[in-house]
Design brief:
The chain is mainly alpha-helical. It has helices at about 1-10, 15-25, 30-55, 60-80, 90-105, 110-120, 125-140, 145-180.
Length: about 180
Amino acid sequence: MSVSLVLFSVIDIIGSIPVIIDLKKKSGYIESEKATVAAGLIMVAFLYLGESILHLFGVDVQSFAIAGALVIFFVGLEMVLGIHIFKGESHAQASSIVPLAFPMIAGAGTMTTIMSLRSEFDQWTVLVGISLNLVFIYLVLKTSSWIEQKLGQSGAEILRKIFGVILLAIAVKLFKNNISAF
């Protein structure tokens, strides 16, 4: 349960609902299965190969976190300012992977958390935690249209702006915490 709760708080799929709704509006729909599977594959790969993958490319965890922070920052800007930065992502297949599966769901924070959890818990416990979170992620993605209906147009717009600012703050925090390593 501890692993599941830690991952749940880092992934924050509930807080990502405005981003999901925004991405759905841009692309027409979100491929829930594809986004969940992609996020799951990224998380499991990072569980077993995280540091090796980064070292293979000559990237340290802090640089990876800063890159993820920049992507999250631009997504936040889109939400707050109502502009489109990710212009080439008009297909649901593309937006289901980037920026939804990565870096929103399986981003730098999730990956570094998984690497930290692996040092404290056995791999099976972390896999169970990842699996439970993937089930919840899938349910939220699948019901995003229903959630959007319940919020209404103005409710979704207010949430989009609020969570856009929160995403900007998270990105700045990630950037600030990791830039000090340089």
